[in-house]
Structures are given as structure tokens and as C-alpha cells.
Predict the 3D structure of the following.
Amino acid sequence: MTADGVAIRLDQVTKTFPGASGPAVGGLDLTVPEGGITVLVGPSGCGKTTTLKMINRLIEPSGGRLEVLGTEIHELPVHELRRQIGYVIQQIGLFPHKTIAENIATVPRLLGWDKARTRARVEELTELVGLDPEHLPRYPTSLSGGQQQRVGVARALAADPPILLMDEPYSAVDPIVRGRLQDELLALQSAVHKTIVVVTHDIDEAIKLGDQIVILEVGGVLEQVGPPEEVLRAPANDFVAGFLGQERGLKRLGLLTVGDAELVEGPVVAVGAAADEARAVMAEHGVDWVGVRDQRRLLGWVAAETLNGSTIGPTDLRAFAATVTPEATLREALDVIVGARSRVAMVQDDEKGYLGMVTIDQIAGGLEA
Amino acid sequence: MILGADKDSFLWWAWVEDHYDDIWAATVEHLQLTAIAIGVGIALSVPLAAVALRFRRTYGPIAGVAGILYAIPSLALFAILFPITGLTVLTAEIGLVGYTLLILIRNIVAGVEGVPAAVKEAADGMGYRPLRRFLTVDLRLATPAIIAGVRIASVTTVGLVTVTFVIGFGGYGGLINDGLSRNFNTPVVVGAGLSILLALAIDLILIIFERVMTPWNRVAR
């Protein structure tokens, strides 16, 4: 842990490649907080990969100051710097001549760990990244792209580095596998709490993975830094807005959960309520149906035309199709709502029971918050 | 008759039986001269290739000098060296090693250049130091190209060794020269035939060696 909670600090960092007309990165100031995922995102030529590679000195900065865990990166030998920074590269880059187990053991071997410790760590990581131990004695060419990517992550985490750099980590795998690997990274991160810096050109990937996203413009110009939700809500300028693209609102809904929204009680009566009471509630809400609940749970609903008896019994009820959990995103809730005849989604929690209803209005309200 | 019973036949078996010891001695000498040439050739080529890879501008001059050595007619080279180093193994080996360098250096350089950039970048990013990366990643992955170079160099060297008879060595070249000078077929046939067999045998051994050394290329996908 550093005193100020900053894992990586860039202070006026520049990079000009020999023969280039302008800088690839020009005077970049940036702080990467400890224990979160920071995503560098921008179009081709925005210097995002150059910035990433300056952190582990695969590219030497032309100027400025770059600190990793409070130490200027030139204050220690470059191989020592790199051994405390995990690195996952775009084309995965597993060693084809080493088995999967040997690939994962790369940095522990460089650090001179003994065999027992290395083997235990390899087994631990195999499980952590969800790799079948049967693959360990095999060579990388026998693995699919997704499995190779998992090995790449395991290899980068082998010596338990506090920082993990990932350069376009999912560009070599197909979209379905990519989505799964992104989910796995988030699950992994909730277990390991590393400082992770990811480079991508895919704004959706940035929004999905990032605790903080850093939007760069060509020439390494910083346009906006912030949590994805904040950047989507208030893009700093036209470039950022353009880069975020269409459906900015929908993208934000994908980041907010139903639990964040203000729920309404909705047209609901208790089980055993009189038919007249149900009709009154329907009239009050301007709907032709009513939800029925007991002390805890929402049991189902009845339509106005089926109300005949004097009270509503449990046998009269029809099940709600449109139900979401509080953990669901507002985007998922919206999808449920537009597919439901009643235009509302019921929010039920396994433990807490019925929490309320969410409608288009609540979702729109969530966006304003 | 090929296998004849008299001196004028293509291969006079009685002579062969009488000269087992000479043939064996020629075989040992031929193998020794070849092995030293290839061994020293590799020992020189690896650092020269490393320099060429590290400092790209040196590749042209290094390959150029190796190319000139390669282009000198072997008889002429031994004639030039003879007054300096005499009738010694050194004279023979300077020539033989000289002919391996171009092939070996070019194959090592091409092999290392053929290692995927992603693998090199990953190795650097993991914190390999340059020498360790070169020896355990670059050269290791260049093994197929390097062995391909060693195979060509070996076959070439086995042939060239016969020429060293001019300075008193020659392996099978001694037999060939002996036969030619006496207008006697059998030693020529034995020397040339065994020289070809030796080249093929070394080549086969190197093919097997490559398979053993590159287990990762044998995995079924």
C-alpha cells in the first residue's frame, strides 16, 4: 500500500518516437488509484498502448516523471520493475516451447522460487483463472484462444504482483469468449484486488470493466477521466460524447442497478382483500390489474375482468413474468418492462421479498440522479 | 562385375577386407574433423549472430566476411593457409570452420528473427534480462532453423573434409587421393561412398535430434 492510495502516477509524461511528426503522448498527467481497474480507451493513435508500455518501460518515456508504487521507474533495474508488474499482451504471447505449467511459472522461476512453492502457486492460479489442470503438461498450441488467454492472465499474476497491465487483452478472441473472459476478470478482481490497467479501443469493454476510464485523443491528449457512469452522464466535450457513441443513456442503464432506483409500491393489495378494494386500487393507478402480496412476497396478479368473488384468494392469481432482482441492471429491467403487458417489472429479493415495482419513470429518474 | 575379384574391378572386396583398419582410421579422422568444424562453427556463429541481431548495422559486414570465406575455393584456401599455419589440424579447421560460418550465422539470425514478436515482448515484460532471454527464449525457439543450418553445414563439411588431404589429412579424402594417384578404383569408391553415407547418417541423426529438441512442435492440435 502506498500512503496516498496512488499506484501509478504520470506527471507530464511525454513520448515522441524518432522520426514522428508529433508526440505519441504529449504531457500526460494521470493517477491510477490502487486496487481498481483503470481503462485507457481511445481511437487508434491516441497513445494508449504507448502509455501502458511506458509504465513497465517496454517503451522509454521521452520526458516527464512516472512513478510506480511511489518509486520513479528509473530508480530500480528494469527487470526488477517488470517482475512486480504483471503483463498481459494483445497476442497473448505464451512461450510455445514451454508447457502451460512452465508458462505460468515464468516469473516465479526468474525470481528463483523453489520448486514446491512454484508448483503450489501454479495449482492455485490454475484454479483461480478457471483452467482445467489437465492442460498443465501440454503445450500452448493445443489450447483454444480463450484458454490461452486464461493462461496469459495466470502467468501475469504468478508472482502476485501488485499491478497488472493488460494491452488489448481480448482482441484475439471471439466476442462470446470475450464477454466470458471479461466477466471472469471482474470476478477475479473481486478476489485479488489488484491495480489493473487495461488498454482497449472498445468503449463498451471500457465501460464494463473500468472503475475509472481514461479517454485519450490522438497524440496522447487526455480528454476525460472518471468512473464510466460519470463519463456517460456528463461527457466533457464533443470528442468524448462522439467516442461514447449512440445509446449513451442505455449504456449508463447497464451500469446502474435496480437497487439504485427509487421503487414504487404500485397497485398492490394484500391477499384476502375485498374485490372492491382491489378495484379502488386499480382505479387509483389507472390500470386494469392488481398485484397481490402476503406479508413478504408478491404472490401474483389478477386482472380486473376476472374479479368476481368478494375476496381475492391465492388460487385466483397468475404469476408475474416480469420479475427482476435488485442486482439486475436498469438496462435489464427496461428490457423486461418493454416485454411486459403491464409495463412494470416487479422487484423481488430472495431474502427480503417484495421490494416494489420499477417502471419507465423510475428508470428515467435513475438516469437523472 | 561391380564386386570383382581383381584389382581392376569397380570394388575389389579383398582390398577392403585387407584395409579395414585404414578405413576405420579414415572414418574416425573424417568424423573428428567434421565434429570440430561444426562445434567451433556453432561456438563462433552464436555470438556473431547475437552481435548482428543486437546491432543491426553489423549484420551486413559480418555476413559479408562470412560470405567471402564461403566463396574462396577450398584448395586455394588451404594453399594460402599452409605457409602460415603449416600441416596442422589448425590449418584444416580454419578452412572447414570458415565454410560453416555463413550458413550457421544466417540460419541463427533468421531463426531468432522468426520468433514471434509477441513472445519476445512477453518475455521482456515478464522481466527476462537480455542474455537470459536470448539463450532460453530466442535461441530455443530458433532451434528448428538453427538445426536446419547445422544440417546443411554438416553435409557441406563432410564433403569438404575430403579436400584436406592436400595438407595431409582428409579422412576419406586420403583414400580417394590414394586411389586416384594409383589409378586404382576401389579406394576411390570406398572413400566417396562412405563419405556420402556419413553425410546422410549425420543428417538423419540431426533430424532425430531436432525432433527430440522441439517437443512443442510434435503436439497434435
